[in-house]
Amino acid sequence: MDTTQLLKGVLDVAVLAVIENEDGYGYDIVRRLRAAGVEDIGDASVYGTLRRLYTAGALSTYVVPSDGGPHRKYYAINDLGKQMLNQQRASWAAFAGTMSALLSPAQTTKAKSAATRGAKK
Amino acid sequence: MTTPEETTKAIRDFAIKVRAALGDLTQEEIQDLTDGLEADLAERAAEQGIAFGSAAGYANELRAAAGLSAGISTGEKAESSNDEAQTRKPRWIPITDQVTAWWQGKLSGNPLLAKIWSWLGNFRGFWWVLRGYAVFLLFANIYSRAGLLPASKMQFVFMVLCLVASYVLSRKFWGRNWFLKLVASGGHVLTVYATFAVVLSAYGWQYYQYDTRYPSNNYIEGLQMNGQSVTNIFAYDKDGERIPIVQLFDQTGQPLAVVRPAQTQNGLPVTWGQNKAGDPLTLTTGAYNGLAPVWNAWPLLQTSKWPDSFTGKLPSTPLDSPVDSVPKLTLTTERLLPNPIPTASAANPSATPVASKKPTGTPKPSAAATAKGKK
């Protein structure tokens, strides 16, 4: 299954969760997502998501000058961001539970046998 | 293995291309999306090398994730096909996008510059008004004579249009439409030119401009003598007696008149002038050809001292002459000798007179009179 498509729907919550642990700048967040196992993610998708979350008021930013190199823009989660994260956590848990139950092999077998019984009647 | 210089160049080039591909967004949006881009790319390059892939693809991914539709600015209507618009784009478009991208890159790499730029952004509204007003001043002064404020309803409407256009120009309305972008680029060039022209003229360049402009355009308003406006003429005959009214013509037979008298106040045609003391006067002509006022019939009549107190009534008292006394002239039909030419004077009737032309008595400049004078 193409996980890139699946990721699109949950990138917001993934990014918020990463930033909740610790403030971070663009590439740092990409790196942490990858380290957490979210590997098929494009850098630009993460940066775009950061910008959108910032525009939505879920993140605040500050600039940190770096020695010798270009400055870094750090993102930090704020109260609205935390609220959003908690809501999305709940939605995800409910959705993931439903999907897991639906897709578990036992469930699939039960459904199949129910369908066979229905056909016999 | 890539050298640090190659890496830096690759990062810079890629960042410029990404910003160029986002060129249809507002400066703020581009800045938000690409702030820190170089730093992120540098870190990525350190881990994965400089194969960044397609800049356009990167830009599209950025804008899609940020919720900014391809090829449009926030809240504006989407165009059907971004790719199609890209391919039809004339060659000069990337240049403007790249200039924008180059500037964004500078801002991104220099926090102090970025701070100053963002501080200047506070005066954006002031700049919009200034450039709109500058365009108004430029055109109003080219096509008619205006002061600092609109002199008529038309000029007022024009000024408002200029201000609105200046605001619209700041709204990045063109998106990916190259024709609108061409119009907008023209608008930007014009507004910058107008602002420079107006600011420079405020510093005294107008004198230079007027001096060179008038002779080339033959645009001298009214009569002039030694650079001063002549707003009234008093005529005397050879005996030094005032001629109540005289019609004057120049060497080509043109009426010698105020060029632009045609304003009407309270039903009378008026023009403006000054008296001997330099006070402003409202003047009218007492002479008509049928219903048309004749403006080369001198002197003009003084109707009120101040232009705004004009009542529309013709003056009942004759106009005072600015000259106390005029000498009586002695006339000769002989040609003047080149030898000492004493000044004609009533007190010295034996002196050789200066006047050589015999008055013909006709108001029109006749060829005969001219010929006689030239003999």
Q: Fraction of residues of chain A in helices?
A: 55-70%
Strand content of chain B: 5-15%
Biggest sheet descriptor of chain A: 3 strands, antiparallel
**What is the count of structural domains of chain A?**
1
- The CATH architecture of chain A is Orthogonal Bundle
Range of strand content of chain A: 5-15%
Under CATH, the topology of chain A can be stated as Arc Repressor Mutant, subunit A
* Morphology call of chain A: elongated
- Rg of chain B is 35 Å
Please identify the top-level CATH class of chain A. Answer: Mainly Alpha
- Count of individual helical segments of chain A: 5
Q: Please identify the oligomeric state.
A: heterodimer
The average pLDDT value of chain B, as a whole number, equals 72
Strand order of the largest sheet of chain A: 1-3-2
The greatest inter-chain interface is formed by:
A-B, 26 and 23 residues
Across the major sheet of chain B, the strand order is 4-5-6-10
Query: Number of helix segments of chain B?
Result: 11
What's the alpha carbon Rg of chain A, rounded to whole Å?
20 Å
Low-confidence stretches of chain A: none
Task: Provide the structure class of chain B.
Answer: alpha+beta
Q: What's the number of extended β-strand segments of chain B?
A: 10
